[in-house]
Amino acid sequence: MENINIQKNLFLKQFNESNAIAYNSRFVANPSDYSFRLLDNAYRLAGKHYAKIKIAIESNKCQSEHCAYELAQLKQLEEAPQKSTDFLTTLIAELNVTDEGTFDPNNDFRYAVANSVMMARPGYSKTDGYEVYLDLLEDGSQQIEFSGPAFARTQPVLINGMIIEIEQPYPLVVNNVSLQSLINSDTSLIASTPDINKEMQELLPQIGLFADKMIENNKLTLNAKISDEFVLKNADGTYDYEIIDLGNGNGKNVLQFDINKIDKKITPFINAEVAGLLSSEQDAVAAWNVYISKDTSVEEDDQMVQNANADNSSWLYEFDLPLSPDKKEIFGYKYKAYFMNNYLKQFTKNQSPTVKEDAAVFDLEEAQKAKAQKFLDDNDLN
Q: Taking the domains of the chain in order of start, what are their residue ranges?
């Protein structure tokens, strides 16, 4: 089944970035009303209600014993304006995550729509059919509700014995107490994708593969090379080169590396990074969906972010959280593979010899014969 969040987030991203609405003559020629008057509407009757309660308390005509209920209501009304301000400030900050370049499109698409409404973007006004209401609830909490054309989804409906897909309203409702509870527990309303590439760049100098002279200001120097202890050598201490074909009968030596030794060295550092990511599982899911799930390269990920599509390998927030032990294990495995392929391989692939004489271009056929003969000699196979 097609992922509705990916589909709709893709469309919203394309719509907002295309500037196409600027060429809609009908839109340009008519006014757009972005005045949702959230606070005015929410507090329209609050003054009268406050005065009524105040009079009841002062005249001792309360409905509850000792005016307990009325005093509680009065306190709620007095605290409500600050709660509204805090609520809207927090909500807008959370919705802004949908504007991040690496936003995971598996997040609920309604948050991206709500952000466009709150940012007063073209096409998301009252004139376009959108409404936003802030309500003061009886229990003292507050809720905001978004509705409009993009707040809809198709659902199967049985009509005359036939199942038909019909688009139905799908409003977004957020309660201030629930939102603040999430924030207080270091959980986000919308998952923000960690900058995996930045983290891996910072990890490189820390993994113990490079000598201190190759590191400046916690960054690798431009000529950084993996330490000699991780380079494969023959029994006699000479380098065990791989010969690569340059074409036209020519070849050259390149260093070979002890990948198992490298793996053992970097694994504790990788495990620490993975543990940090998994401490916030929603962030780990975002990193999985946007970056590491498909064995892609950094360049391909840049394009994938543009396409905003992790496709069938996506983990879904509403179904896959909390992450199972199996998923945590595969996350760690794939994270290491991504690091090896995209950040470490550049230091292990086609690395020229450090011995000047061994770095020269040579006749490929002669070199291959010599290498084969050396193998026979070393293993007493002549």
A: 4-191, 197-348
